[in-house]
Amino acid sequence: MADVPLYVISANTSSERRITPAWSISTLRSKLEHITGVPPSSQKLSLKTPAGSQPIEAADEDAVTLTSYPLAPYAELHVVDTRPINAQPNFNDTSVEKFVLPVEEYEKKTDSVLAWKKAQKLGRFDPDAPSHEQAKIEAFERDIQQRGIGAGRRVRVGGDDTRRGVIKYVGEVPAIPGGAGPWVGVHLDEPVGKNDGCIQGTRYWGEESALKHGVFVRPERVEVGDWPVLDDLDDMEEI
For 47-153, where are the alpha helices, taking DSSP H only? Predict the structure, then answer.
């Protein structure tokens, strides 16, 4: 069976990868560690297709292969890091200046990932890419409607019980690269987010703050429900 192009998405990465259906789940986890930085034992995997979301897990992950799952071209493979926040690496350190190659120069290179994707007709260079992208956007919109995702609703983000908050925005966020379709902006109860509700000069809610309570995620990463604000004293046996 031929390899299938999927979008691999985690909290810190998003890239197109070719997945071999004959791989076992254990093999997939091992390869995803090099892409996402999340150890296999801490990965919570799910496959998102227009038909819905399906967890990827099994009692014997060395024996079960990916042929057991509906691998559709350009479906989304989500990798959630189940480690506590303080045990996860921080890839957003802005104290070190980053080198950025101008887009014009990068597009001229013949040994780049972009050049390879052009040659292999992957991503936006795939003649069928527009239809795949539209199907993905429509799936997001259905998910929002069916689960009642809207401003003011309490949610938990990414299955992490410590990342609770309230939805402040649902809609397009043009500043996110390759991020066509709706995003869900959440104001987290604790300052463990990525921003303060503002991205590249566009403010979606609140006022400027040094505390990062804001995060923008795709609809499938939020769980709508009665998620009360956590009480730090609940876990203390004595004071």
Answer: 103-108, 113-120, 129-146
The three-class DSSP label of residue 76 is strand
pLDDT in tens, 162-189: 899 999 999 999 998 878 899 999 999 9
Q: What would the 3-class secondary structure string for 141-208 be?
A: HHHHHHCCCCCCCEEEECCCCCCEEEEEEEECCCCCCCCCCCEEEEEECCCCCCECCEECCEECCCCC
pLDDT digits (tens, 9 = 90+) for 84-131: 988 887 766 666 677 788 889 988 999 998 898 888 887 778 777 667
Exposed/middle/buried for residue 117 (C-beta within 10 Å: 0-12, 13-18, 19+): middle
Residue 55 backbone dihedrals phi, psi, to 5 degrees: -70, 145
Assigned fold of 4-84: Ubiquitin-like (UB roll) (3.10.20)
* Rg (the chain; Cα; Å): 19
Residue of 48, 45, 53, 9 whose CA lies nearest to 27: 45
Beta-bridge partners for 195: 214
Structure tokens at 176: 């996110």
What would the pLDDT profile of 190-201 be if each residue is shown by its tens digit? 998 999 999 999
Q: Which CATH number fits domain 144-224: 2.30.30.190, 3.40.50.300, 3.40.50.10190, 2.60.120.580?
A: 2.30.30.190
